[in-house]
Amino acid sequence: MMFSNLRSLIFKLDPETAHNLAIKSLKFNFIPNILDREKNNPLFETKLFNKKLENPIGMAAGFDKNAEVYNSLFKLGFGFVEVGTITPLKQYGNPKPRVFRLEEDEALINRLGFNNSGAENIVHRIKSNKQIGLLGINIGPNKDSENRLEDYLKCLKTFHNVADYITINISSPNTEDLRNFHDESKLNELLKEIENEKKKLNSTVPLAVKVSPDIEDKKINNISDVLLNNNIEVVIISNTSDSTRDNLNNIQKHQKGGLSGKPIEEKSTDLINKFYKILNGRIKIIGVGGVDSGKSAYEKFLAGANYIQLYTGMVYRGPNIVNLIKKELKELLIKDGVKNFSEIIGKK
Questions:
Q1: Residues 273-300: pLDDT tens digits?
Q2: Which of 127, 156, 199, 346 is the most buried (most CB within 10 A)?
Q3: Contact 116/62 with Cβ under 8 angstroms?
Q4: Which comes out higher in pLDDT, residue 40 or 216?
């Protein structure tokens, strides 16, 4: 209730200012005391990278770019948290304004461009603030890097000791030509180099790859093959979309950048299902895109997601979103007569 009263005030602020305020509030523990009636409910228990999770609902990368508030997010009930995207060197990102709130569409468009304080600063912060839950670190190249592949390796070297898993982000629409890594040979080369680097480091850190929602159907098989051949354990489907604008209502719908929230829900759910049919359980799927309710989470699981992540949903529904999802999801799962949500995965 408190958030719905505050929301109209928050929405008067520029979206990036509102986001910075949210980070500060979490940093200084100005967070609501959330009563979680469903804590440790066996309906939601699962494992990710062989670590037990209280629930499969994660915070997507992009919210806590500089790894400042992951422990506060765990306290809000998230089963796991992914920070970043982090690049080797600090960068400002694209010029402001670069985040746009499309209220009628329950969406955001951002063209932030991997703004972050750089790998070295962030790894020191993580080392001095031990994570209380499963922490993923999302990595990418600097905008003006001469060798993007090398940037991924630098980040791997920096974070392999502190991350519970590392996500290779090849799908942001806001770093020019980054999505070229969806090309079969480029992706294969990248993942082989990362695997070689892991061997040199004697590292067992698990890897996830985050793909674009704008993939053409004919590429799904190729990408799946490359992921399978490189023993990738998890694929994150998907990132923000640089298309899907036609049915939007807000006048800012043609802003350049990545679209997130409700308008990409169906697109990402369809893509999850296409990958699920090919991967057939051999690679776990984290479903992202338009998750803001028990029903939207339920649809992602039915399509084949083993876990979900959200970010824009919290912008519109507030810091209690994990509990809202669990409460609604519980009703749907009880109706299905299942003992654990995993029983419905891929049953679309």
A1: 999 999 999 999 999 999 999 999 999 9
A2: 156
A3: no
A4: 216
CA 26, 28, 30: angle at the middle one, nearest 5? 65
Question: Is 27 a member of any domain?
Answer: no
Query: Kind and range of the H or E element at 286?
Result: strand 284-288
Structure tokens at 274: 């296409």
List the one residue out of 328, 254, 329 whose CA is nearest residue 102.
254
Q: What is the largest CA-CA distance in the chain?
A: 55
To the question of pTM greater than 0.90 for the whole model, the response is: yes
Q: What is the CATH number of the domain that holds 202?
A: 3.20.20.70
Question: Strand 99-102 relative to strand 51-53: parallel, antiparallel, unpaired?
Answer: unpaired
For the question of residue 172 being annotated catalytic, the response is yes
What is the residue range of 253's domain? 40-344
Residue that the structure tokens 């180099």 belong to: 193
How many domains, the chain? Answer: 1
Considering the candidates 72, 145, 171, 172, report the single residue annotated as catalytic.
Answer: 172
